Known about the structure:
The structure is a homodimer. Chain A is mainly β. Helices cover 4% and strands 30% of the residues of chain A. Chain A has a six-stranded antiparallel beta barrel with strand order 2-3-8-7-4-9. In chain A, strands 5-6 form a two-stranded antiparallel ribbon. The two termini of chain A are 30 Å apart. The model of chain A is unreliable at 21-27, 146-158 and 162-166 (pLDDT under 50). At the A-B interface, β1, β4, β6, β7 and β9 of A face β1, β4, β6, β7 and β9 of B.
Amino acid sequence: MKxxxxxxxxxxxxxxxxTKGMPNQPTAGKNVEGFIEIQPEYIEGLSELEGFPHLxxxxxxxxxVGYTLRVKPFMHDHLRGxxxxxxxxxxxxxxxxxxxxxxxKEGRIYIKDLDITDGTPLLxxxxxxxxxxxxxxxxxxxxxxxxxxxxxxxxxxxNTQHDKEE
Amino acid sequence: MKxxxxxxxxxxxxxxxxTKGMPNQPTAGKNVEGFIEIQPEYIEGLSELEGFPHLxxxxxxxxxVGYTLRVKPFMHDHLRGxxxxxxxxxxxxxxxxxxxxxxxKEGRIYIKDLDITDGTPLLxxxxxxxxxxxxxxxxxxxxxxxxxxxxxxxxxxxNTQHDKEE
Lengths: 166, 166
């Protein structure tokens, strides 16, 4: 199939440095603050963004190298199909996060609730709208988690690039 | 910035043919059925996907040509920053939809609640997890819609490729 070429519109800055083997964050994400530096040529496109409490960020997992079609998520024993996980090691290493918008000022977008590695290239920003909100009746294999691990931690950890993946 | 290259993992098939000037769908999306044909080499990655009621699809707006940083959404009078809309004409024409998963069978993923043009190249599939569900307190400029237009219609129409955008 035909290749598709994109160009980053900015860089996401967060406190999560891309260090292999760093301790897993038990409360990763919630309230963590950072900002996006938008490339000057795209700043005009941010107009009226501030009216939305949440944004969808679509970004490139720049540290992800290669992929396997079955992955063993952090703290889980079984292999799962990569598309049933949020692992960064996927055929197209695209990440998606819903973050809280704090403020937009001079090409900087201040955001909260981050679980994204520092220096990540941003591809797109979309406003979070009611259609994006769905009832979550089941969470597939995630419900089989080890009973002593907090659900939140396991869910979050499927989305970070610094997770250990065996 | 460095270019990023992706390769489609499959094609999304829907009843929405890409015809310019087709009537705007007032109830577009809800209950509309379609399927994704996954490329044979990625089928193994679909394992255990069926446990999730909703999927996040990330795809390429293949019919979108060029962009402007301010767009006039369908049925709205004012120009808005492109990142505050779901317009397909964006710097990186990436689409994101949350769809209902019906069934996975032999490399075909049957889905519902579609608002995607037929033939759209798919880049990634992710399970929809509780972290993706956010309270929507405000919907920015969308709340200033003409009073006789149903909210749902306006919201949906910001995401389709066959919308008229002046």
